[in-house]
Amino acid sequence: MRSFASDLSMIDEGREFTLETGHEFERAIFPTQATGRGGQFQLWSNAGTATSTWLRKWRDIGRASITDPASDIAYLEYAAPDDADISDPRVWAANHPGLGHHVLIDALAADYLSLEPDDFAAEYLGLWPETQIDARLLAGWLAATADVEVSLGDPVVFGLEVSADRSRVLVAAVGTAADGGPAAALILEAELAPGWVALLTDELARWRPSSIVFDAAGPVRALRPELEALPINVAELGTRDVIAAAGAFYDRVCVAALGHGDDPRLEAAVTAARQRAAGGAWLFDRRASAALPVLAVAAALWRWLDGRQRPPTVS
């Protein structure tokens, strides 16, 4: 575009560009509009993601311009409320202007089931994932503490998770590492079929954990009768503890204080993990199904930390 004069420059899908690429656009476009009567620059897009740093910059500039009477920016943002239930078709109808015109309700329903929650909310409801984790940064910290030969000493705690569609059960273990700190391992992943109890019983005999813990608000709670029939302490985490567990996991990964086996499933789970606001803090969003190992490890870690002060009651 250099050496030209432009009256109107438009960029669509601004969410796809990083801050660096966006600055290249600006350096190419803005000088072409500095002569004559000047020109207009338009940037259009759905809501972005954690990597949509250029669009986020202009979103923040635009929002600030609304209360600035001297601003020459026209800013338009169409989105559902931040606390909207994105699973509710009534929310779709109230906040998607194309629904019933050029967008089909059946298409939205199908996409809700197949897209990740953040992606659906951004694409169809204009919602930014304000609490999305910088997965690349967290995965880098995690990679620095991987140990193929990791071993877990007493006390060992199991964390149990079940996928939202009740097709998969996953168990993570947190125990004492050689340096006295916590270490984690994924020990069981199977279909939630009649044979899962036998598989779990085998792991109990192998690891002899002090307890098995799960999120009381999650789908595991329906399995409590089966768990209570096993020779293991069963513990539920309330929402406050689940929030604390998420923070404890995050803090220890960030300072390389959580050892773990070199398991690609855990790295993939960290990459998939998302945060969800809760009680003035945040917890891991279980709707990101690939992140289940993170939820299981976080629950077990929190119980392990608590168990350092409370000796196990099952030998």
Question: Could you list some keywords that capture this structure?
Answer:
Nucleotidyltransferase, domain 5, elongated, 6-stranded mixed beta sheet, 2 domains, single chain, alpha/beta, 11 helices, 315 residues
Topology summary:
Elements: E1 8-11, H1 19-29, E2 40-43, H2 53-65, H3 89-95, H4 105-114, H5 117-125, H6 135-144, E3 153-162, E4 168-176, E5 182-191, H7 196-207, E6 211-215, H8 224-228, E7 233-237, H9 239-254, E8 259-260, H10 264-272, E9 275-278, E10 281-284, H11 292-307
Parallel strand pairs: 1-2, 3-6, 5-8, 6-7
Antiparallel strand pairs: 3-4, 4-5, 9-10
Describe this entry's structure for a reader:
- With 315 residues, this protein is an alpha/beta fold.
- It has two domains: 8-65, no CATH class; 135-307, Nucleotidyltransferase, domain 5, CATH 3.30.420.240.
- 37% of the residues lie in helices and 18% in strands.
- The protein contains eleven helices and ten strands.
- The protein has helices at residues 19-29, 53-65, 89-95, 105-114, 117-125, 135-144, 196-207, 224-228, 239-254, 264-272, 292-307, and strands spanning 8-11, 40-43, 153-162, 168-176, 182-191, 211-215, 233-237, 259-260, 275-278, 281-284.
- The chain has a six-stranded mixed β-sheet with strand order 7-6-3-4-5-8. Strands 1-2 form a two-stranded parallel ribbon.
- Strand 9 and strand 10 (281-284) form a beta hairpin.
- The longest helix has 16 residues, at 239-254.
